[in-house]
Amino acid sequence: MQIIAFCKMPAFYCKKSIIFLTGLLTMQHRPKDKGTCTAYKEELAAAICNCRSGALKKLFLIMNFTATFLLVCCLQVSAALYSQTVSFSGKQVALKDVFSAIRQQTGYTVAANARLLNTAGPVTVEARNEPLPQFLTRLLSGRSLQYEIINKTILLSEKPGAPPVSVREKQAAEQLPALMEVRGRVTDSSGVPLAGASVKIKSTTAGVTTNSNGEFVINAKETDILVISYIGYRAIELPANSKALGMITLLPVENQLDDLVVVGYGTQRRKDVTGAISQIKPRDLNMVATPSVAQMLLGTASGVTVQQLSAQPGGGISIYIRGQASTGAGNSPLWVVDGFPLSDGDAEPGSGNRYSYGSRNPLNTLNPYDIESIEVLKDAAATAIYGSRAGNGVIVVTTKKGKSGKPAVTYNFSQSVQEITRNFDVLNATEYMQTANEAAYERWLFDNAIFPYGNTIPENAKIPYQQRYTDAQVAHAGEGTDWLKLVTRKGDIQQHNISITGGSEYTKYAVTGNYFNQHGVVKNSDFKRYSVRTNIEQKLSNIFNTGLNLTLSQVDNRNASLGDNLWENSSILTNAIQFPPIYPVYDAEGNYLINPVYSPMANPVSMLEIADNTITKRVLGTVFLEARIGEGLKANVNFGLDNQLGKRNQYLPKTMIYGLSVNGDAQISTSEKFDKKLTATLNYAKKLKKEHSVDALAGYEYTNFDATGFNAGAKDFFTDILLYNDLGAGSAITRTAGSYRAPSNELASYFTRLNYSFADKYYLGITGRYDGSSKFGANNKWAFFPSASFKWRAIAEPFLEASQALSDLALRISWGQAGNQNIGQNAFSYYSSGYSYAFGTPGKILPGVTLSQLDNPDLKWETSTTINLGLDFGLFKNRLTGSVEVYKKTVDGLLSARALPSWYPVGSVADNIGSTQDKGIEITLDSKNFTGPFKWNTHFTLSHFKDTWRNRNENVILQPYEHKNDPLRPAWTYLFDGILQIGEEPPYAQPLLLPGQEKIKDVNNDGKIDINDLALAGTTDPTVTLGLGNTLEFKNFDINLFFTGMFGRNAVEDANWSRWGVGVIDMINQGYNLMSDVQKRWVHDRPGTIMYSGTPSVYQTSNKNFWFNGNFVRCRNITLGYRLPAVKKVFSSCRLFADVNNAFIITKYPYMDPETNTRAGYPNQRSYSLGVDISF
C-alpha cells in the first residue's frame, strides 16, 4: 500500500483567494464548530469589502460559473465513487491492511500521517460489494479520524478536538504491555532449516517468515502466543517468552489428510482423493549410488513391481503397476514429468553392427535430486483422465519449485566404491583339466557301451582311450588365466548436486545442477550425466501468472559389449566365462590368442579394444500461462516439448576376429525424438455454502510425435588409430549411409473431471477422456475412457467420532476404463525400403520397396477395465495408518499379430485378439513405533497379483498341457523324477534309459514321455512383492534400513546351464569352460543325485537344472547419518552420512542374482558410500 505521510496544515488563511471563495460557496472545508465558523465569516466579509464593486461583480460571475461547474463535477465524482465497491472480511486487523485491500480493489491511494495509522488500533469489519464512501464512513466510525476523497486519493486527517497524536501514543504506551524482540529457528525433525515457515502472533495478522537458515525475528508482547507453521507440517503454538523458541522442530502432518496429492492435471487434498494413489516423497528415496529415478521406486509403493534387467551403469529397469496384463503392446506405465507425458523409449541408437551394449533406462536423463514428489496412479479412477495411454498405470513426477525468501543454497556430495556381490564361479585351470579328462573318459565309456553303459569290456573298445591332459600337466596347471578378473574391476561413483532456491512475492525460482560419474565393475562400462534444471514462476498481476520449467541434460555412455548371442557376437562376460583358463591372453607373437579348439569364441580381453560410445542429449520443458478469471475459476495454457538426440560411435578393430575379417569396421548412428504437446484447461473450484464443495475441470490436449534417424559406416581401414573419426579412411566400396523418418503420430484429446464432496464426508468423482489417435484404423481412431468413484469418510460420522482407537476410516470404490497404444510409431507403415529385385537386363539389381503391413481399419486400443475397493484407516491418533486395495482388471482387445494364410510378402496383420485378467491385493502400513527423543518409524508395502488368460486368440490351438486360464508367462517343464543309478531298473516309460541319465515323470501314465507330460513349473512373473523401511532417530543421529522382497517367481531361467553346464562332455570337447557346479554331476565312479551325467539321452530332459526358485529378500540399503550443529555464517545445516547399497540378499537361488538378467548378465554390485548434505 502506498501511504503518503504529510503534516497537518491550516486550511483557512487565504483571505483574498478565489479558490477560497469558491470552496466556501461549494461548502467544502466548512468548519463544523460555531466559534470557528464565526471567525470564518468575518474573514470572508473583510475579503469582500476589500474588493472594488466592478471587480466584485466580475468575481461573483466567476463564482457562479465555477459553482455550476463544480456541482456537475461533484455529481460525476459522486457517481464514480459509489460505483467503486469494497469487499472485505477481517477480525482485529490493522487499519493499514484494510486500506491495502481498498487500494488493490479500487486503485484508490491513501495519504495520511504514518503515526495516525500506527495508533489507530485494530478493526473488525465485514463488507460485501459496499460503496467505497459508505464503507469508509463505517470503518472510521467512533474513531478520531476523518477522510476526504480527492481524485484517486483518500486523505486521512484527525477530527477537530482529537487529542494530539503524541498524547494518544503516550496513552497507548501506558495501556499496552511493552514489546520485546523474539528470535528463533525452525527446522524439520532432521534438523534441516525450514525456509519460508510462517511465524505469527496468535489472534492478529502480525507475522514474519523464516529466512534461508530457518531463523526469524519478531516483536511481540511477553503474553503473546506465537503460531509456527509450514506446509506439510503440524503447526505448533509457543509463548513468546518460551526458551523452546531457540530451536523449534516441526513434525510432518500426522494424517496428512490436508496434504496435496498430484493427480492428473491438478492437485487434490489427500482426504478428497477417491482413487488409488500412492505418494512418494524425497525422504522415502535413496539418492546415493543411484543414477535413475526408476530404481528408487523399488519397494516404496504397493502395487509397483520394479525389476533390474541389467546391473550395468544406467542399466535397464522394468517397471509395471498391478501386473503385466498386456501380451503384445507393452506393460510400461505412462510417465508424466511436470505435466508432460513422456513417450516410450529413448533416442539412443541401437546396435550399428554385431555388438549390443545391453539394456538401457530411458529415465537416466532425469536428476533424482530434482524430485519434489512422485505419485503412482493405479486404478482407473486415477488414470482415466490420461485415457488411451494409461492402461498400465501412470507415474507422475513433480520437480521442486522456488520459494519466497532469501536465496537458499544446498549442496550434496557422495563418493562410492563398488564391488561385485556374487560373480560367476567357473573352473580354474586345474579343475578344467580334471573335468576334461573325466568327461573324455565318460564319453569313451558311453560311445563304446562299456560298463555301466553296456556290457562291452574295455579291451574290445573300437577306439582306445586317450587322456586329454597328462597327470604332469594337471599337476602344474595351477589357477590358470582368470578371464573374469581381467575384464572386471572395482567400480566407483562420484556425485555432485547443487540447488539454489529463492524469490519474492512476485518471482520464485529454483536452479539445480547435477553431475553423476560412474565407472562400472566391468571394464569399459562407464556412465556420466550432466544436468541443469531451471524453474521460474512469475506473478504478472493479480490475475495472470506464468512459469517455465526447463531441464537440459546429457548422458555419456562408454559401452561394454553385453550382447545376448553366442560366440564372438555375445557378451564380454559370456566369453570370459567360456574361454578356457588354460590359455594365456597373448600368443607367442604378442597377438591376442585365438581359441585353438573353437575359434569363433572371442578372446575376452580383445573385446576391450572395441570403441563404443553413446551420447544422449535431452531438452525437456514446459511453459504455462495461468489466469484467475474470477472467484474459484482459473484457466491454464501449457506448452511442452521433449527433444532427445542420441548418437552412437563404434569401431571394431583388427585385433578382433570379426574386425580382422573385414579389416576394421566403423559405424556412426544418430536418432532423434521430438514430442510436442499443447494443453488448455479450465478449472472451477468452489465451496458452496458450508458443506458442499465442487471442483470441475475441462481441457483439451494435442500431442505430436516425430522420430528420425541416420547411420553411416565403412570397412577396410588401413589403420585402427582413426577409429570412427574418419569414415573416409575406409574403403570407398564399403561405405554405407542411410536415413529414416518414422511416420508422424498425433493424439488429440478432450477430457473432463468433476469432484463433489458433501460435509467432508461423502465424495464423488467422475472423469472422462475422448482420445483420437493416428495410430489406429479408420473405424476406431476415437475412443472414450470414463471412470466413476465414490468415497465415504466413515470417521466423520457421529457414531465414530467418539472412538478412542479409531482416528481415521474411509471406504472407496471405483470403476473405470483406460487404454494402451504402445504399438510403436504407427500401425500403418505399409511399405518398407531397402529391398532389391532383378528387373530387365539379366543380373541387374534395382532398389525398391515391399509391402510390410496390411491395413486393418478396425484396429483399436487395448482397453483395461478396473474395479477397485479401497480402505484407508488410522489407529491410535494415527500412530498406525494404512490402506488396503482389492482390485480386478480385465484387458480386452489385446494388440497382437494375427497370422494370415500366406507368408509372403506379409504373413500377419495387426489386430485386437483375446483378453486377459489381473486380480490382486495391496497393503500399505505406516507406524510410529516411538515418538519421544528416540524416534522409530516403519513403512511397509505388500502386493499380490496374478495375471491369467480370459480368452485367447481364436486361431491359437492349445497344446495338450495348456489350459484356458494359464498364467500369461508360464514355464513348462518335464518333471524330474531322479537319476537312474547303476543296477536300477529303467522306468516303464523310458526303457532305454542309461545310468546317470534323468528319469522323467509320466504325468498321464500312458507309458510314454511326450508333450502330454509337460507340467507347469511356475511363472517368470513374481506374484508377491514387498518393501520394508525403518527409520530411527536419536538426537543428531539417524539410521535408515530398507528391505525389498520378491516371491512366487519360482521359474527363473538360468542360461548358464543351457550354454555351458549340462552338456559337460560335449562342451569340454568343443573348447568351452564350465561353471564349477559341473563337478557335482553324476559320474560312474562318483554317482550323485543332483546333476545327471550329461551323456546323450534318447528321451526328453527336464528343466530342473534350468529353472530355480527366484524368491529373495534383499537389504537394499543401510544408511547412518549424523547432523552437525549449525554454525552461523558458515552453514545452516550439515549432515554427514555413510551408506551401504545392496548390503546382502537372502535367497536359495544358487547363481548370480535372482533379480537381474541371468544370461551372463552384468553382475550386481554392492556400493559403499560417504557423503554430505549441506545447506547455506
TrEMBL record:
One Gene Ontology cellular component annotation held by this UniProt entry: cell outer membrane
Transmembrane segments: 59-82
Membrane topology: Multi-pass membrane protein
Pfam families noted in UniProt: CarbopepD_reg_2, Plug, STN, TonB_dep_Rec_b-barrel
GO biological process terms, semicolon-separated: iron ion transport
Domain Secretin/TonB short N-terminal: 108-158
Keywords tagged on the record: Cell outer membrane, Ion transport, Iron, Iron transport, Membrane, TonB box, Transmembrane, Transmembrane beta strand, Transmembrane helix, Transport
Residue ranges of domain TonB-dependent receptor plug in the record: 270-394
UniProt cross-references to InterPro entries, sorted A to Z: Beta-barrel_TonB, Beta-barrel_TonB_sf, CarboxyPept-like_regulatory, EF_Hand_1_Ca_BS, Plug_dom, Plug_dom_sf, Secretin/TonB_short_N, TonB-dep_OMP_SusC/RagA
Domain TonB-dependent receptor-like beta-barrel: 675-1142
UniProt-annotated location(s): Cell outer membrane
NCBIfam families the record matches: OMP_RagA_SusC (TIGR04056), SusC_RagA_signa (TIGR04057)
UniProt record similarity statement: Belongs to the TonB-dependent receptor family.
Protein name: TonB-linked outer membrane protein, SusC/RagA family
